[in-house]
Amino acid sequence: MHRNKHWPPSLISILAISLLNTQAQAEQIHLGRFSSGDLSNWEEKSFVENTLYKLIQDNSQTVLKAQTSGTASGLFHKIDIDLNKTPYLNWSWKVDNIYQGNNERRKEGDDYPARIYVVVSGGLFFWKTRAINYVWSSNQSIGTSWQNAYTGNARMLAIQSGADETGQWQTEKRNVREDLRSLFGEDFNEINAIAIMSDSDNSKQQTTAYYGDIFFSDE
Q1: What is the 3-state secondary structure (H, E, C) of 47-82?
Q2: pLDDT at 48 over 90
Q3: How far apart are CA 97 and CA 74, in angstroms?
């Protein structure tokens, strides 16, 4: 007697769902698993003393808290991300307050309550390094971009602005590949690092910011 070699429809459905879930997981690259209490692979870089970064509970969710008072340090994560496969950067953030009277386009006002930036390394050719700073601006309109006050290799892009949304979590998604092309006029296939920073060393003001999980995705 020949046995039926066809799998039951129910088993096929289970396998199909399992395959889809596996593919979905493979299409997300998690860099900041703060909700899991994970700060591995993040290193601190100090410019002017140290912003205080620590994991806390916010409404029963673990997030990264940043407190800055005349300080400037950031957390960075070295990782190569293929922008052809996962071009979308996803994150959430919240700030308690913005800065008053600082000109973000000048060195003496180059402070942001919260920023996340991506870096394309130039390797030995450091002058080829490029970076986008996605910032919570104190006074520039949402969608505005400008050159960093310290280097022409970095561009600032206001994702949130002003005090209207302070104290409230905001969820963001950006197509990094398209943003790099738009801001630098070149095509880049990968980024090599991502960083978080809340700083106030120039304006000498203070604020508290919060960062949720950070990941790249294909859509």
Answers
A1: EECCCEEEEEEECCEEEEEEEEECCEEEEEEEEEEE
A2: yes
A3: 19
Structure tokens at 53: 């970064």
How far CA 79 is from CA of 42, 145, 176, 194, 216, in Å, comes to 10, 25, 15, 8, 11
What would the DSSP string read from start to end of the chain? -PPP-SPPHHHHHHHHHHHHHHHHHHTEEEEE-GGGT--TT-EEEEEES--EEEEEEETTEEEEEEEEES-EEEEEEEEEEETTT--EEEEEEEES---SS--TTSGGG--EEEEEEEEE--TT-GGG-EEEEEEEESSSPTT-EEE-SS-TTEEEEEEEESSTTTTS-EEEEEEHHHHHHHHHSS--SEEEEEEEEEE-TTT--EEEEEE--EEEE--
Tens digit of each residue's pLDDT (9 = 90 or more) over 188-211: 999 999 999 999 999 999 999 999
43-217 CATH: 2.60.120
Q: How many CB atoms lie within 10 A of CB 201?
A: 18
Of 180, 200, 199, 198, whose CA–CA distance to 190 is shortest?
180
Per-residue confidence (pLDDT) for residue 42, from 0 to 100: 96
- Token pair belonging to 105: 């386009």
- pTM for this prediction: 0.86
